[in-house]
Structures are given as structure tokens and as C-alpha cells.
Design a protein that fits this description.
This protein is an alpha/beta fold. It has one domain: Beta-carbonic Anhydrase, Chain A, CATH 3.40.1050. Helices cover about 45% and strands about 10% of the residues. It is built from 17 helices and five strands. It has a five-stranded mixed β-sheet with strand order 2-1-3-4-5, sandwiched between helices. Strand 4 and strand 5 form a beta hairpin. Helix 2 crosses helix 5. It is globular and about 55 Å long. The chain binds zinc ion.
């Protein structure tokens, strides 16, 4: 476990939900801030007849055992919840990723009979739109086996007609309860989208098509000197953009409204193997400048006949 790499890994975009996972990454750290903040008399005031514990968070089991200094073996024994709702689906992904980055992945496999039975149907609990990058294989990152993840991978994890159609299919016809748009550390597609237009225009048309889907998200990146931090911010900004576009999809909107699915963003850190999730509106919010750049992009695309259907 490379805990030394993980402890201060959040330079930007730290938010409550992400911080919880970040806490999970400071493996072996002695105590939580919350525990530090308890006044000496507070424990005495807490009696068995006056429970003061707040309602458990969706992923409290994972957070709780890690806070208590769980061993790798304890994490390995964590059971994935039966993911038949959005909350449990997210928890199953977090639990699986914790096993993966903790070095205790189960790499679930099926018996020959179980595999044959899969011919009948598929019931993936999660849909993940990730990057084609060879270092980011979705099932491995979430420690899931055959039939658990409806995986869509395209350079830069962009929303465009084919990826939208795949997601719509899964949301409409399969029993998935979460859609994750997952970017990753050092994404080459995002890096290419950050190049000057003159350089991007030297790429073949289909590559330009992909890069054009990313460009609006990096139109107003904050000035960050550190290259790694700037790159991270660019990838997260692209995730926010793609989640924004996805949430405008009528099929996804309807399923979200019905409570069948939730849509979240995610950032996979290659070095540690850990995924940070972007779940709340604050974590997923685009700046006014980014929204303006998206509107501009939609206008440009609308004038380009070959790309006239890419947005919903
Ligand atoms: Zn990538």
C-alpha cells in the first residue's frame, strides 16, 4: 500500500464526498479529525439511552472500518452490497475500488456453470463511461467480475452519439442503478485537447471530433502552476462537462427523476489505484465561463452537418 502517496493527494477540488474517500486513502493514519474535535466531557455526556450518532452515510461501513484502522484482510472481507438501488450501487463500486487500491482485490470469477447461465441475460448494476487508456480497465479498478459493469470506453470518456446511445440502452433495458463518468490521471485525450487549436487541427478528423468534445471544459481552467495539479483539474473539469451533457439526456433525466439511477463523476488516480467520486451538485458544478464555452461549442457543432446529432 502506497499510503505515503495518498495522504496529500488532493491538491484541488477537495469536497466532502471526495474527502471521505481521501480519508480512506490515508490508510494507517492514527485518528480522524472528527475524533480529535470531541471535547473531553463529550463522551461522558453520551449515554446508552441517548444515542447521538447521526444516521449512517451510504458508505459508512467502508468509512467506519477504515477510520478504525482496518487491516487489508478486513477490507478484503467486506461484502459488496446487493446493488439494487443507486446508493448501494455506489457503495459497491467504492468497496470494490478500496479492495483494488488496497492490494486485496478478489478478482471475482465465475464457475463454468455460472458463466454459461450468463447467456440468458445480463444484469450489470453499474454503467461506467471511462477512457480507452490501457491503464484504466473498469472492471479491474472496481474489482468486479463478469456481468457486473456495463462498460463503455472511449478516449477522453466523452459524451457523443455512440456513448450516449450505449448509456441509454443500459438505463432503459438493464437493471443498472448508477452511471459513472470516469476520467483519469494523465489522460492523453485531455492533454491533447489542451494544445493550441493550430496543433489540434493537425489531427485526423475523428480525433478532432473527440478533442472538440473536451475543449469547452478547459476553456477557463484556473491558473495552476504545478503541471500535475493543472492536469488533474483539467481531467476533473472534463468529467464535470460530460456529466453535465449526460444529465441533459432525456432517458437519463427520466430515470434519475424516477430514482432508478444516479449519475456521478469519478477521477481515477493511476499511481494509487484510487477513485475519487464527484457526487454532489457542488462537486459537479461548471463555472459560468465553462457553460458559455459549452453553448458556443453546441452552436459550432450545430453548423457542422457531420456532427449535428452529438448533443441532446
Ligand atoms: Zn484517457
Amino acid at each position: 500500500m502506497k499510503s505515503h502517496e495518498n495522504i496529500n493527494r488532493r491538491a484541488v477540488s477537495v469536497t466532502a464526498g471526495v474527502a471521505m474517500i481521501c480519508g480512506a486513502l490515508s490508510w494507517g493514519q492514527t485518528t480522524s479529525h472528527a475524533a480529535d474535535a470531541v471535547a473531553p466531557g463529550a463522551a461522558a455526556a453520551t449515554t446508552r439511552t441517548q444515542p447521538v450518532q447521526p444516521a449512517p452515510e451510504p458508505d459508512s461501513l467502508l468509512a467506519e472500518i477504515i477510520k478504525k484502522g482496518a487491516t487489508m484482510e478486513e477490507v478484503a472481507r467486506l461484502r459488496d452490497p446487493v446493488a439494487n438501488n443507486p446508493v448501494d450501487a455506489l457503495r459497491a463500486l467504492k468497496t470494490g475500488n478500496a479492495r483494488f487500491y488496497g492490494g486485496v482485490a478478489r478478482r471475482p470469477d465465475l464457475s463454468a456453470n455460472e458463466r454459461r447461465a450468463q447467456i440468458l441475460s445480463q444484469t450489470p448494476f453499474a454503467v461506467v463511461l471511462g477512457c480507452s487508456d490501457s491503464r484504466v480497465p473498469t472492471e479491474l479498478v472496481y474489482d468486479q467480475g463478469l456481468g457486473s459493469i456495463f462498460s463503455i470506453r472511449v478516449a477522453g470518456n466523452v459524451i457523443e452519439p455512440a456513448t450516449s446511445g450505449s448509456i441509454e440502452y443500459a438505463v432503459e433495458h438493464l437493471k443498472s442503478h448508477i452511471v459513472v463518468v470516469m476520467g483519469h490521471e494523465g489522460c492523453g485525450a485531455v492533454k491533447a485537447a489542451m494544445l493550441p487549436a493550430a496543433q489540434r487541427n493537425k489531427e485526423p478528423a475523428n480525433v478532432r471530433f473527440l478533442l472538440d468534445r473536451i475543449v469547452p471544459s478547459i476553456a477557463s481552467l484556473p491558473a495552476i502552476r504545478d503541471d500535475k495539479a493543472r492536469m488533474r483539474e483539467a481531467v476533473i473539469s472534463n468529467v464535470r462537462l460530460q456529466v453535465h451533457l449526460l444529465k441533459q439526456n432525456p432517458v437519463v433525466t427520466q430515470a434519475t427523476k424516477n430514482g432508478k439511477i444516479t449519475v456521478v463523476g469519478a477521477y481515477y488516480e493511476i499511481g494509487s489505484g484510487a477513485v475519487d467520486f464527484l457526487e454532489t451538485p457542488e462537486e459537479l458544478r461548471l463555472s459560468a465561463a465553462e457553460l458559455r464555452a459549452i453553448a458556443q461549442q453546441v452552436r459550432v457543432s450545430a453548423n457542422a452537418p457531420q456532427h449535428s446529432h452529438q448533443d441532446h
